[in-house]
Amino acid sequence: MRRLATAILIAGLVAAAPAMRAGAETLLPTAAKPEDVGLSSEQLARLEAATRANMDAGLLSGTIMVVVKDGKIGWQRVMGQRDKAKNLPMQPDSLFRIYSMTKPIVSVAIMMLVEQGRMQIDDPVSRYLPEFADVKVGVEKKDADGKATLELVAPTRAMTIQDLLRHTSGLIYGTRGESLVNKAYIEARIGERSVNSEEFSRKVAKLPLRFSPGTRWEYGVSTDILGRVIEVVTKMTLGEALDEMVHRPLGMVDTAFVVPEAKLARAAQPAVSHKDRPMTPRFDVGAKAAFESGGGGLVGSTDDYLRFMMMLANGGSLNGTRLLGPQTVAFMTSDHTGAIPGRPPALPMGLGFEVRKSVGNAVLPGSVGEYGWGGNAGTLFWIDPQRKLMALYMVQVNDYDRIFLRNQFRVMVQGAIAK
Questions:
Q1: Phi, psi angles (nearest 5°) of residue 34
Q2: Do 103 and 294 meet the contact criterion of CB atoms below 8 Å apart?
Q3: d(Cα 127, Cα 413) in Å, to the nearest integer?
């Protein structure tokens, strides 16, 4: 795996690397053994064995797993196949559909625009997207025959950029519920890649909100709408804006909305169907979609995403290039949902990330202050400033198995922290 360029991290998460020749990148060092950075080789061997058992059971074809601790790569594994149908091995530079791990990247771009004075997070969304000026909330009621009907009412306040960042906008994913609003999303075929971002935004704005902005948390297409906001503010396509603002400055050379032909052979493909669980359809990484989904459309490498994580861990900069100020990163990775219903008390939502507020009252172990997110094909990352740890799990798996697999990875990595 190409080692990662970095600087000395402000919080001490990534330490200074050995000196290099003039003009060369500074590399993130690798620990001689996990114990050198406070990780348990025995526990990590259990994780590797569990992963092999999962591959034997057909839950995944291959994976790349990385744990960074105390400024060094403490453990990494490249396992299995990137394309089982073609019998191609997983490689360090394999490319993955990161789906919702696109959201933190888009959220960072939004906050860069805020830092540049080009927008504020309490701005109404309609300031940039006029189609949201007259959105309505769908309230379910029963008619005289007891049939559910949808009444459209005005929201109690306007939807803001902050609502989009923390998923309190009232925008949803149609497949995540049975309400009449969910059904309206499904009937509108939200998520098709055949419309462009402007058409997508107008389509969404015509649908009823699930709730009034700011009154509830629910996961949905909010970050897709943020992608359209970026396009309006920057006057570029989302792909162009992310390349200019985030990808190129960080050296994320393999992250994009479409994989060029020269790189297609590197693409990790979904696991082959097993037993009675057909494989979840995944988008064609080589096909340029009209809609560049800010909520889930990027494809990238393990190295690229680690660079993004290291920028965050370093308070907004990497290798001398600053994207955000430390205060902004701290702001993004703080609790922004508070008492708003919809999120577990221990795991509130920040601006583009899930954040950890308490050790208990949750189903997974973790440290107060850690933050991260996952992707629909099973990818997962988190950053733990308290333990000086980062972990990244790259896979392409079935919807049926992704929660089990990434929870297993997370719990077993937490169990490997020896100090």
A1: -55, -35
A2: yes
A3: 44
Distance CA 186, CA 139 (A): 17
Other Cβ atoms less than 10 A from the Cβ of 314: the count is: 23
Number of domains in the chain: 2
DSSP string, 342-367: TS-TTS-B-SSSEE---SSSSSS---
Do 173 and 79 belong together in one domain?
A: no
Q: What is the SS3 assignment for 144?
A: coil
CA separation, residue 91 to residues 65, 71, 98, 234, 310 (Å): 12, 24, 16, 36, 22
- Residues 239-293 have pLDDT tens digits of 999 999 999 999 999 999 999 999 999 999 997 766 667 788 899 999 999 999 9
Q: Are residues 219 and 359 in the same domain?
A: no
Q: Which residues pair with 160 in a beta bridge?
A: 124
Place of tokens 């709408």: 225
397-411 tens-digit pLDDT? 999 899 999 999 999
Give how far the C-alpha of residue 178 lies from the chain's centroid of Cα atoms, to the nearest Å.
25
Q: Is residue 47 part of a domain?
A: yes
